[in-house]
Specification:
It contains 11 helices and 16 strands. The chain is an alpha/beta fold. Strand 14, helix 11 and strand 15 (about 300) form a beta-alpha-beta unit. The structure holds zinc ion.
Length: about 300
């Protein structure tokens, strides 16, 4: 499982940072890629990665500001031009209005897609668990921005323990149907009366990962709730230390506030994105250094950077 950042800038693109988008790559888990936000130019960034647009099965939108959604019509149209590839449906989750934005831009531009889009719109009253599959559950909660904006908490379900085949062979269990029984937790007795306790041959279940991806927001308790015990928290850092007042006025956070959220939530790792173009590279190291005084495991991400979870 990896996160690849496609755009890490705030508001408008700069040479170094495109506007918001990131890909949660779940290729080993479910052979899918989930996009979070899709700012203008996201499809160009994807061209610089190994991500195949057809693998993008779900898109989660945090809010309807242009720097988070203007890449949708282009991406959706290009996704249709995957020669010789099967056309797979796509799900879009986002605030009410996202369906009308997408359908209007496709209609007025005369774009016809050979696959179907299923929209899942929500508002303040229909948040909470927005998706559950056999492997993942996704929750959304409202943040505190200048328009309705949400954060997402992606929870992988616990992974079953694995069977230690070598140990079973060493214990004299013949390879075959007995392996299946033991895998299902059944104890067995071999012909020589050796008892095989399934629990001794199956590793303990591993807890699933928790990934929290927030949209633009002031510091709010909702961010902390979404990030409780997260393996990774992706948090905006539009402003730096000392900019708390201006951040509040514009509906954003500073690096220090993001670090406080990570600390209060007991997250394991904090990735700062949504970085203003006015920060030069020396300022970026300062952003990290200042935030690290509150939460040590912090990193300011770059476009195209890939982070293993
Ligand atoms: Zn915004």
């Amino acid at each position: 499982m990896d996160i690849q950042f496609l755009g890490t800038g705030a508001g408008q693109p700069s040479k170094a940072r495109n506007v918001s988008s990131l890909a949660l790559k779940l290729l080993d888990e479910i052979n899918e890629v989930w996009l979070f936000d899709c700012g203008e130019g996201t499809q160009n960034r994807i061209l610089e990665t190994t991500i195949r647009p057809r693998k993008v099965s779900k898109i989660f939108i945090t809010h309807l500001h242009g720097d988070h959604i203007f890449g949708l019509p282009g991406f959706l149209s290009s996704r249709a031009f995957q020669a010789n590839e099967e056309q797979t449906d796509l799900e879009i989750y986002g605030p009410q209005g996202i369906k009308s934005f997408v359908l209007t831009s496709l209609r007025v531009s005369g774009s016809r897609l050979p696959y179907r889009i299923h929209f899942h719109e929500f508002d303040q009253d229909s948040l909470g668990k927005i998706l559950e599959t056999d492997k993942f559950t996704v929750y959304a909660e409202e943040l505190d921005h200048t328009i309705f904006c949400v954060g997402y908490r992606v929870m992988q379900k616990d992974l079953e323990g694995t069977l230690d085949a070598e140990k079973l062979k060493a214990a004299g269990v013949p390879f075959g149907p007995l392996f299946g029984k033991i895998k299902n937790g059944q104890d067995i007795v071999l012909e020589d009366r050796t008892e095989i306790k399934a629990a001794d041959y199956i590793s303990a279940p591993r807890p699933g990962k928790i990934i929290t991806i927030l949209g633009d927001t002031r510091k709010t308790n909702a961010s902390v709730r979404l990030a409780v015990n997260a393996d990774v928290l992706v948090h905006e850092s539009t402003y730096g230390k000392g900019d708390e007042k201006i951040a509040r006025n514009h509906g954003h956070s500073t690096n220090m506030q993001a670090a406080q959220v990570a600390a209060e939530a007991g997250a394991k790792r904090l990735l700062l994105n949504h970085i203003s173009a006015r920060f030069l590279s020396k300022d970026i190291s300062q952003l990290k250094k200042d935030a690290a005084s509150i939460f040590e495991n912090v990193h300011v991400v770059k476009d195209l950077e890939e982070v293993e979870i």
